[in-house]
Structures are given as C-alpha cells and as structure tokens.
Write a structure and sequence with these properties.
By secondary structure, the protein is an alpha/beta fold. The chain has one domain: 3-Layer(aba) Sandwich (Rossmann fold). Helix content is 37%, strand content 13%. The strands form 2 sheets. Strands 1-3-4-5 form a 4-stranded parallel beta sheet, sandwiched between helices. A 3-stranded antiparallel beta sheet has the order 2-7-6. It has 7 helices and 7 strands.
Amino acid sequence: MIGDSTMADKPTEDNPERGWGQMFPLFFDSTIVIENHAKNGRSTRTFISENRWQTVLDKLKPGDYVIIQFGHNDQSKEKVDRYTSPEDYRQNLEKFVNETRSKKANPILCTPIMRRRFNEKGEFYDTHGVYPDIVREVAKEMQVPLIDMHRKSEKLIRDFGPDSSKKLFLWIEPGVYKSLPEGKQDNTHFSEFGALKMAELAVEGIKELKLELVKHLKK
C-alpha cells in the first residue's frame, strides 16, 4: 500500500488517530501479507523523490498488488514542499502503474478520500479539485482497477450528516488523551472507527471489482 496520512499506520498508545490502511489487514486471512508504506504528508512527488517508491518497487514480486492512494497533499498549493501540479500528478500515477506492471504485479488506483466539509447551511462540499478525476481518467485509460474512495466516502459522510460524521474523524474532547490535552477538531484524519469504516469501503471496492483478493477475505 502506498499513500498519505489517511492510509498510513499510526502509533496506537495514547493516540486516537488511525489510517485506513492500518485497519485493512483485519479483513484478510493469514495467507495475505499487507505492507503499508503510506507516510504522513507525502504526495506522489515526494513519495518518489524520497525513494519511498523505489523501496516498494524493489520488493515487488509477480502477483503482488499495489494499492495507490494520493491526492490530499498533491493538491495543497499552499504547501510547496509537497504540492504536485495536476500534470505531474497524472504522470506520477502513470509511473506507479507502469513500473508495478513491469514487475508483473497488479496496480489498484484509489481516488482520495473526502474531507469532512459542511458549510453553514449543512451542505457538504469537496476540496480536491481536479485530482480525483485525474485518478479516474488514468484508471480508465490504462485499464487499472479503480476503487472510488472519493465517491464512496462522500456517501458515507453525507449519510452520517454534519454532526454524526465527526465520529469518523478526529474530533476529540479536551482531557481524553494525554497527548491531546486541549482536544482536537480534524476533518481530514480518522478516528479508529472512521478508519475502520474507510477500510470497509475499500474492501467493498475489491468485491465489486471481483479481484483475486476476494478469495482471501475473511468469511
């Protein structure tokens, strides 16, 4: 698995945050080994420039799967250390796909997960711009299985609504965790419950795609 903080493993001691990739192994039997290489704050550009992708590529064996989910940091124009232009984002996704296939492994593209954003009228809105559509286009053009986490998570957040959707994210009351004495209100990163729900959406996508991985899901 390669991606950003929404996917990445997090410390579990005195820390309410989890990445959905951290919860993903719970759904699979013992015949599957899941390596989560996702890292906080990474875009497609920095994941490549820091040689994190090369590390993954060197390990790939025929038949392996690479689940790819970036976008949060790529689209952050105000953070120049991680921002990736739409054109470069597309090229980087194509690079991941082509190089995965060069190892006879199987790429799976995921659109970025929605942030929890409601306006004053309680209407949900998106913050990702063109980036989710670029993932969809690359998946279609290169015939890559696509899990549309963007649309799936939008439905989930809308179904929970403006108040209940806080449970999916890091909305922490003051004094609950020593590490967060003043609490936290974070609409991007997930609680354990939220990460589990997002992982469920990814598993749902795998079932819809009828991938070989379905055989290894826990009954």
